[in-house]
Write a structure and sequence with these properties.
Blueprint (H helix, E strand, L loop, with lengths): L1 E4 L21 H9 L7 E6 L2 E4 L13 E5 L8 E4 L12 E5 L2 E2 L7
Parallel strand pairs: 1-2, 2-4, 3-5, 4-6, 5-7
Length: about 110
């Protein structure tokens, strides 16, 4: 499953289409929706549009073993997708994996 997150999206949307009328606004909401899925060993992707996306405390989730999350920005222009945080933004436990590609990270916000 792919969830789309854009600066012009809304967390009231389902996140399943890359349009402003269907995309989500925050990574936290995408993670919340992904966490509720039965992944059965498959990867969930969060596709980010251009812009700056804060990683807040609400992004922390205890992803379980065998869960794999891909956070993808723009591999051709990673400076157009910025993940910013000043605290604990993403957490991992139990052998889960988060892969990021095509994003620029600001200091802080990542813990394992």
């Amino acid at each position: 499953r792919t969830y789309y997150v854009r600066t012009d999206g809304s967390d009231g949307n389902d996140g399943l289409t890359n349009t402003s009328g269907r995309a989500l606004a925050t990574i936290a909401k995408a993670i919340s929706l992904a966490y509720a899925l039965d992944w059965s060993g498959y990867r969930v992707t969060i596709q980010l549009g251009a812009g700056t996306f804060p990683l807040t405390q609400e992004c922390v989730a205890a992803f379980l073993s065998m869960q794999s999350l891909l956070i993808r920005g723009d591999p051709a222009n990673p400076s157009s997708v910025i993940l910013s945080s000043t605290g604990n933004g993403l957490g991992l436990s139990g052998g889960a994996a988060i892969e990021m590609t095509g994003v620029t990270l600001t200091p802080g916000g990542f813990c394992a």
